[in-house]
Design a protein that fits this description.
- By secondary structure, the protein is α+β, with helices and mostly antiparallel strands.
- The chain has one domain (3-115).
- 28% of the residues lie in helices and 48% in strands.
- The chain contains two helices and seven strands.
- Strands 1, 2, 3, 4, 5, 6 and 7 form a seven-stranded antiparallel beta sheet that branches.
- Strand 1 (3-8) and strand 2 (11-21) form a beta hairpin.
- The protein is elongated, with a radius of gyration of 14 Å.
């Protein structure tokens, strides 16, 4: 499918909807914007989304992010919010207060993303 951009007042993403079945969608995401944050993935990520009649779900195990939305749009917004929260917690903090596990997460985020 063609590249697309979904937008809401404080949220947008740039990516592609790669595959759709009745209960499964695969998004390839290059960049997210949430409020004043614009975060670009160094390489696009694949986000698998599932539907069950109640809503849409995704698990992004690489960052231990698990999201829900009533629609795929709401799901992507919630996913973007979780990415930004992780950025704030692990990147925009005093590194001296981070545990060894938190420092590892920080390094992992920096390998995946950059802020524009």
């Amino acid at each position: 499918m063609e590249k697309g951009k979904a937008t809401n007042n404080n949220f947008s993403y740039l990516g592609k909807l790669r595959f759709v079945e009745d209960d499964f969608q695969l998004f390839e995401i290059e960049m997210i914007k949430y409020n004043e944050y614009i975060l670009k993935f160094n390489s696009p990520i694949s986000l698998k989304c599932f539907a069950d009649g109640q809503g849409f779900y995704c698990d992004y195990d690489e960052l231990d992010i698990h999201c829900y939305g009533k629609s795929s749009q709401e799901l992507l917004e919630n996913f973007s919010e979780d990415i930004v929260i992780a950025w704030k917690i692990y990147i925009e903090c005093d590194q001296k207060v981070l545990s060894a596990g938190a420092l590892a997460m920080r390094e992992h985020l920096l390998k995946l993303l950059k802020r524009l």
